[in-house]
Amino acid sequence: MKPSPGDTIKIATTEATFEGILLQRPALFEPGFIVLKLDNGYNIGIEEKKIKKIETIKQYEMPIIKRKEFKHNPKLPTVAILSTGGTISSRIDYKTGGVIADYTADDFIQMCPELAEVANMKAKKVMGIMSEDLLPEDWKKMAEFIAEELNNKDIAGVVVTHGTDTMHYTAAALHFFLKNINKPVIITGSQRSIDRGSTDAFMNLICSVTAAARFDGAVVATCLHGSTNDDYCILNRGGRVRKMHTARRDAFQSIDELPLAKVFPGGSIEVINTAYKKRADVKVEVEGAFEKKIAIIEVFPGMDPGVINFYLDKGFKGIILNATALGHVPTVFPEYSLMDALQYAREKKVPVIVSSQTINGRVHPFVYTNLRKLSIERDCIFVEDMLPEVAYVKLGWVLAKTQDTKKVKELMLTNYIGEITERSDPRAYPFDHGIAKKH
Ligand code: GLU
Questions:
Q1: What's the chain look like in SS3?
Q2: Is residue 138 within 6 Å of ligand 1 at its C-beta?
Q3: 0.70 exceeded by the pTM?
């Protein structure tokens, strides 16, 4: 019988034997090839004329999730799980061979019954998209759904499942948008999808629900693996967290401060960094207005200063200049100096925020003469150790409140959610080559 897409097949070619799932041939593949998804998750194309034998090993069966009834346990707190998309919601789409985000929060509960031992669960699907496609208006929509749950007396905390790529932007945005946050909002995701044996989704979910139910902080924090093993997750403050690896399960790291806590899948929480606001009985409001005409501009050797003029001429309202180290930009050679472009920004009253591409450490407006030129002569705003992505999110949020340049500077340098540390914690620097353990 001819195999159909989704079937597990074995193909013997003139060169080798392959076993995997037959995919519908995506339009981008040349004719004369068939496409297999191998066990390691990769897709390969096999030239049809080289095939000697095809054997069907297992026919495709639609995954059926048998819905279980979970009874409300009055002894346990209730957690709201809001799903938004990403790998944690993904499964293979046999039509394209790619992945689609279609598992909902309710499906997670069905697939991971251990969650019911930690808390009662209330699930809602907010959206189903990959995080690289999210927009600032989606952050606002998420904030509104979250606020509704946070203002419900029966809810102990909220878990948001999300794609990991831009999770650190969302974590910062939600932290700024949720005014008077009163309970934990825990954002989680996974680096390996639920249909793979090595998935990190379930432990991340269990730890996240534990944190939402019992962590005593009123913060937005990410909660994903804290090491490459399945031993614990870490809570990183939204606004100080960054995705630092493309594939590792412990990709999310706190920068310049220690993570807030370790959360163990067995249910315990070990606080590491006590500098956070505690749960409070206050009403949460959403301040989700956002000015989208902002650009992050990377500074690099040989850059054309005209890039800045381009944005200014297009009517952009703010710029994040992701400068080198302490905040340097080229200032010496007329053709490459940014000084004229920055003067143009000043005349147009467009705030220029200086952050550092070293990620760790802080920018400084006065140490060198050329830094003084930027800060004093061009009014560039040096934002201490605020991460570039956080500076972007914050500037969009600030510019929706005011476009008065003095006020913008004052608000950008006001510490709202712990996005600026008073002193960078040297223990948080991760690149120690295994000499000292970070946490
Ligand atoms: N790029 C996708 C996203 O961020 C998948 C990555 C992931 O969830 O880990 O939504």
A1: CCCCCCCEEEEEECCCEEEEEEECCCCCCCCCEEEEEECCCCEEEEEHHHEEEEEEEECCCCCCCCCCCCCCCCCCCEEEEEECCCHHHEEECCCCCCEEECCCHHHHHHHCCCHHHHCEEEEEECCCCCHHHCCHHHHHHHHHHHHHHHCCCCEEEEEEECCCCCHHHHHHHHHHHEECCCCCEEEECCCCCCCCCCCCHHHHHHHHHHHHHHCCECCEEEEEECCCCCCCEEEEECCCEEECCCCCCCCEEECCCCCCEEECCCCCEEECCCCCCECCCCCCEECCCCCCCEEEEECCCCCCCHHHHHHHHCCCCEEEEEEECCCECCCCCCCCCCHHHHHHHHHCCCCEEEEECCCCCCCCCCCCHHHHHHHHHCCCEECCCCCHHHHHHHHHHHHCCCCCHHHHHHHHCCCCCCCCCCCCCHHHCCCCCCCCCCC
A2: no
A3: yes
